[in-house]
């Protein structure tokens, strides 16, 4: 049975935002900045459909794993971050851009059926149709991001960890903390697959936490870590290698993670490593919400026009989209900076269309990138200029604090680091077992 759900009173214009990540939060902020009056007056209604009830600030994942910040600091409930939106905890299942409707399944219905929405596969879509609800929209923003292809490596979904599914980082943090606290004779080995920014930071964080009690192996298929940095900033890539060596991380180049069992990681060269924990940062694929098939690139990302619309009434940015850089003509990288800037821009353009004004092309050119290896030990590249050590660490922290969705949490992060400087590492708070917001199943009236 398909039900038509209307999120409360039907305003003159309904904006539906899919996902609860960077794109959605910054699209909302852009919209509120330029058409907030219409939203507050009820002429424009904003509905968010997200599989997660909180925004995850992924940038501090390394600090959480290393026990420098509690997990909670990285999580901002969506209802707090977007107080004028109706938040629906559910999974978008299809987009019909011609009829301007989006289909979705409520998280509550999925949990009744024992389906895990975060590890959902497209093959489950037949059973979805019985529980699907339909919401019509005037404007739709697709910000559903990406996920690591957990099923691409046999055994990974069952025995390993990826980093983007809600809740994974909390469970992983507890696991690594337990292993680091283990006092037995056995030395736990953590295998991190993927030598990009995320993999390098995760390997460093685990090694920083575990010291001599944890063995950390970083497995990378290329001939050098940080391929996204190597060519343009070889000095920073070398510095990262030195930091990993200092932390005792063993780097294995030219091999891939081939499969995972309960206690082994098999590699593509036929060898295996004992592994109590396997963390995969093996790239990501856009989350596929069926529909708009003629507007996707070969990787499945929604191809955007210069103003970040996909077709009339549909906008996209972030990891789910292929956004072209205004000067290089290449797709922009899949990272938080571009998701934030894309979200902001399309929110502004959406507000312009509401006022009958022409949209503007996305003209943002970029800022830089950074990775951390512990307090005071970072590498940063800002407008092409490399920084290392404390300067790089402060630059990265300043940038992250500026973009955290909650001022209160940003202030807490500063306090956490100050406490760390005074008293040393504080153990991360255990992951909350209850959702940050008890019941988001029903649309909330602002
Ligand atoms: C461990 C880690 C560390 C990182 N560190 C950095 C860093 O230091 N700097 C940096 O710039 N970038 C970093 N990134 C990358 C950055 O987090 C992503 O590029 C960014 O989150 C993309 O934003 P987004 O809005 O497109 O997607 P996301 O922020 O991933 O949000 C997607 C949202 O969509 C929801 N969703 C998914 N499917 C559906 C569906 N079918 N229906 C409804 N909702 C759905 C998800 O629950 C989530 O709320 C890191 C990523 C990871 C995993």
Kindly describe this structure.
With 446 residues, the protein is α/β, with parallel strands linked by helices. It folds into two domains: 3-147 and 284-354, FAD/NAD(P)-binding domain (3-Layer(bba) Sandwich), CATH 3.50.50.60; 150-282, FAD/NAD(P)-binding domain (3-Layer(bba) Sandwich), CATH 3.50.50.60. It has helices at 22-40, 61-65, 78-81, 107-112, 125-128, 156-159, 168-181, 197-210, 227-230, 234-247, 336-354, 389-403, 407-423, and strands at residues 3-4, 13-18, 44-50, 54-56, 75-77, 85-96, 101-106, 133-136, 139-142, 146-147, 188-193, 214-220, 250-253, 257-260, 264-267, 272-274, 277-280, 285-286, 302-303, 309-311, 314-316, 321-322, 368-372, 378-382, 385-388. The strands form seven sheets. It has a nine-stranded mixed beta sheet. Strands 13-12-11-17 form a four-stranded parallel beta sheet, covered by helices on one side. A three-stranded antiparallel beta sheet has the order 14-15-16. The longest helix has 19 residues, at 22-40. Bound molecules: flavin-adenine dinucleotide. Residues 18-23, 49-52, 58-59, 61, 91-92, 143-145, 163-164, 166, 198, 287, 289, 318-320, 334-337, 339 line the site of flavin-adenine dinucleotide (FAD).
């Amino acid at each position: 049975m398909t039900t038509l759900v209307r999120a409360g009173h039907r305003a003159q214009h309904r904006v539906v935002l899919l996902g609860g990540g960077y794109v959605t939060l910054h699209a909302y902020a852009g919209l509120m900045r330029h058409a907030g009056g219409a939203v507050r007056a009820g002429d424009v209604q904003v509905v968010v459909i997200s599989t997660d009830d909180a925004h995850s600030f992924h940038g501090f994942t390394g600090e959480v794993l290393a026990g420098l910040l509690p997990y909670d600091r990285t999580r901002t409930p969506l209802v707090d971050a977007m107080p004028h939106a109706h938040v629906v905890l559910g999974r978008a299942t299809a987009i019909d851009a011609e009829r301007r409707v989006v289909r979705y399944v409520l998280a509550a219905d999925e949990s009744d059926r024992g389906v895990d929405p975060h590890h959902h596969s497209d093959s489950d879509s037949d059973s979805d149709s019985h529980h699907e609800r339909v919401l019509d929209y005037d404007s739709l923003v697709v910000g559903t991001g990406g996920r690591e292809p957990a099923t691409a490596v046999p055994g990974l979904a069952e025995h390993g960890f990826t980093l983007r599914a809600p809740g994974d980082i909390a469970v992983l943090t507890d696991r690594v903390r337990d292993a680091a606290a283990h006092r037995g004779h056995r030395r736990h080995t953590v295998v991190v697959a993927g030598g990009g920014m995320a993999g390098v930071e995760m390997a460093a964080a685990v090694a920083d936490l575990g010291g001599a009690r944890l063995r950390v192996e970083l497995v990378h298929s290329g001939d050098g870590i940080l391929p996204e940095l190597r060519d343009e900033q070889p000095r920073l890539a070398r510095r990262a290698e030195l930091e990993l060596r200092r932390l005792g991380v063993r780097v294995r180049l030219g091999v891939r993670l081939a499969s995972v069992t309960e206690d082994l990681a098999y590699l593509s060269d036929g060898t295996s490593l004992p592994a109590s924990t396997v963390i995969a940062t093996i790239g990501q694929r856009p989350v596929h919400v069926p529909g708009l098939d003629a507007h996707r690139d070969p990787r499945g990302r929604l191809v955007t026009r210069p103003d970040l619309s996909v077709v009339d009434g549909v906008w996209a940015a972030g990891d789910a989209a292929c956004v072209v850089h205004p000067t290089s003509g290449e797709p922009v990288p899949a990272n938080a900076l571009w998701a934030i800037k894309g979200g902001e821009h399309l929110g502004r353009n959406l507000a312009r269309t509401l006022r009958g004004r022409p949209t503007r092309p996305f003209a943002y050119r970029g800022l830089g990138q950074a990775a951390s290896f512990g307090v005071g030990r970072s590498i940063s590249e800002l407008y092409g200029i490399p920084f290392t050590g404390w300067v790089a660490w402060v630059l990265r922290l300043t940038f992250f604090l500026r973009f955290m969705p909650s001022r209160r949490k940003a202030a807490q992060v500063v306090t956490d680091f100050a406490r760390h400087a005074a008293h040393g590492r504080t153990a991360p708070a255990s992951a909350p077992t209850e959702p940050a917001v008890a019941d988001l199943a029903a649309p909330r009236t602002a």
